Amino acid sequence: QSFGAPFYIYNYYIVTNFLQRVLGEHKDWKKVGAETINKANDMLFPTMMHHWRVWPVVHTFNFYYVPLHHRVLVQNLVLVGWSGYLSHLNHESTELQTPKVEVEATLRRIETQRVQRRLSIRRDETTQLRSISASSQGGQAKLLNVKK
Questions:
Q1: Cα dihedral across residues 119, 120, 125, 126: positive or negative
Q2: pLDDT, mean over the chain
Q3: What pTM, to 2 d.p., does this model score?
């Protein structure tokens, strides 16, 4: 926890940022390297604070309460979430978001999705009504032609 984790997290930020920028549109290796190192340095301490809140609790729970044959499973399940969290922190942001900001962003995203679903349903209903109307008008025209 004291030596391996900072090394792993720092290298994670270095490798992912460097590859994102080099494989993306940036081709100046020196500039990309400097930006990458600066971002890794800025992100390391806040990420380690989160790391030290999560992993000691996970390991304590894992070693005291989980049977031996399930410990790797528990650790790997938490690791999947932790890797996603690191990716979230690393994705196009140089600042860590507070939980309050994350919750507000999530609520805005949910509301946007809800509105989009409503619009989609209304659009589908309108399309269905038009097709029913068109088919009923076509049927009425056929009836009129038969009667003539």
A1: positive
A2: 81
A3: 0.55
pLDDT digits (tens, 9 = 90+) for 108-125: 888 988 988 888 888 888
Band (pLDDT 50/70/90 cuts) for residue 58 is very high
d(CA 96, CA 46): 8
Residues in Cβ contact with 6 at an 8 Å cutoff, skipping those fewer than 6 apart:
44, 48
Q: How far apart are CA 44 and CA 102, in angstroms?
A: 20
Contacts by 94-100 with C-beta closer than 8 Å and gap 24+? 94/39, 94/42, 94/43, 96/43, 96/46, 96/47
Instruction: Spell out the alpha helix ranges (H) of the chain.
Output: 4-23, 29-65, 71-90, 99-147
Using CA atoms, how far apart are residues 8 and 10, in angstroms rounded to an integer?
6
Residue at 8: amino acid letter: Y
Q: Taking Cα atoms as reference points, which of 110, 55, 100, 42 lies closest to residue 81?
A: 55
